[in-house]
Amino acid sequence: MNNAQLHSVSAVILAPLRQAWARLVEIGAIPLAAPLLEEGEVAASQLYLKTVMTEINAFSASRNPGLLPGIEVHIKEQIGDVVRLFSGEEVCKFLFVRAYAQALAEQRFPLEAALHVYRCGLKVLTHWIRNAVISASIDGGEGVNSAATDFVIEYANAMSAIMAAEYVAQVRMLAEAEGGQRTEVWNILLSGYDESDGRVALLLKRAGYLEQRRTYCVVVVRATNPAEMENPERVKRISTALAALISRTPFRMLMGVRNSAVVAVLSTSRRQSGWTAPQTHLALRVAELLEELGPAVLSGVSGDQPSTSMIAKAEREAVIAQDSATVSRRVVQFSDLPVRSLVVHKGGEFVRSVMPGWAAALTAADVASHGNLTKTLRAVADADLNVQAAGRSLCLHPNTVYARLERIKAITGLDGRKHHELVELLLALDCALA
User: Fold this and answer.
1) pLDDT at 409
2) Which domains does the chain have, with CATH numbers?
3) DSSP of 392-423, one letter per residue?
4) Which of 123, 121, 69, 79 is nearest to 100 (CA)?
5) Of the candidates 172, 15, 200, which has an alpha carbon nearest to the alpha carbon of residue 93?
6) Which residues pair with 257 in a beta bridge?
């Protein structure tokens, strides 16, 4: 909490405690009972600690070596603070509770167990304070006991409220810091890094991304309708669905949004040791899972990579695979792409800028024929240049196929019945339509 929040805590949470403290001052319990409280300070601390250890198993069950010394110090600070208040000093901002809450949050100690400490202390503090007030022979009758009880209740309430608020704030801050670190690691892995950079190497090592015998792959997921990626809620739903899917596996994942797509870096153990057999390809296992995302998204999966230095390359592979995905083939692995697709994807833009003159005319004629010219060329290729077989696959008479091929030859000067010229025609069409 910042200073403004601390002031708010002082104004709201501590107000009832200050009123209870003022009442004890008014009836004389403060400071008359202070010497007796100070005499029983050690015994009260010991009883408080014993009660906590008996009733709260979380302390004895924890393997954290700093937990038991921490609670012992915290109880002594509480007891000492009560003696200070009964000596006449005013209620302060419970900085020792704040510090203890931060420590417990960093140790991932459960908040419920931490708050239970103050419930345990309520009985001990009430007995200790009431005995001191009565022994001090303060003239106030039942009013003194009531005032002492009210003070203990408000004291425990104030500590509980401050503990809860500070603990939650610290957990949130730690989560944000961890999220920021994960984002930084994700960006470094995808952007590539200099292996001689010691700071980056240390960051990756601390995050567990320089371990031996691990394999990596990248997944790129986009909505089937690209315009939907402009909607933050849609992107969030895709991210949530992907995270839920991967949470069922032993894979580690770093995920974020990059270039209007959800991009995840996945990793797992390649093998347990040098003597054991390698695991099934990570990319293959991930691709099978991605089928469960449904028809609303298209996914691309890179090939397996043996080190973090190859993850930037893996992202490029995943992007190419995702660009090749269609509604009928929603998940594409880079390793399954034919060489033809890779050539068109990599060189398509350059080819489009230097297209031969006949390409535009062929594309226009194809559009006018509702795509029949392209279908005919592909059918001939699939039939290994056998026109009769191509006609059967298109449910056409062979003469119709011959007529279309002659028309294509008249436009382009290339004969679709010759292998090299057919390849030229198809690559030009693929690049033009890409």
Assistant:
1) 93
2) 3-175 (1.10.490), 212-337 (3.30.70.270), 342-433 (no CATH)
3) HHHT--HHHHHHHHHHHHHHHS--TTSHHHHH
4) 69
5) 15
6) 262
Q: Do residues 344 and 427 touch, judged by C-beta distance below 8 A?
A: yes
pLDDT tops 60 at residue 275: no
Mean pLDDT in the chain?
86
Give the chain's length.
434
Strand partners, 252: 267
The structure's pTM equals 0.53
The answer to whether 74 and 96 have CB atoms below 8 angstroms apart is: yes
pLDDT tens digits along 212-264: 778 899 999 999 998 999 998 999 999 999 988 888 888 888 888 998 999 99
Q: Which residues fall within 8 angstroms of residue 147, CB to CB, at 6 or more apart?
A: 20, 23, 24, 27, 29, 140
State how far the Cα of 171 lies from the Cα of 324, in Å rounded to an integer. 43
In three-state secondary structure terms, 267 is: strand
Q: How sure is the predictor about 321, in pLDDT bands with cuts at 50, 70 and 90?
A: very high
Nearest to 66 by CA among 115, 21, 12, 108: 108
Tokens of 307: 């080190």
CA proximity to 175, closest of 272, 81, 79, 108 = 108
Task: Collapse the DSSP code of 277 into the 3-class scheme (helix H, G, I; strand E, B; otherwise coil) and give the result.
Answer: coil
Contact 147, 24 (CB under 8 A): yes
Q: Which residue type sits at 296?
A: A
Distance CA 293, CA 244 (A): 10
Give the separation between CA 55 and CA 68, rounded to whole angstroms: 14
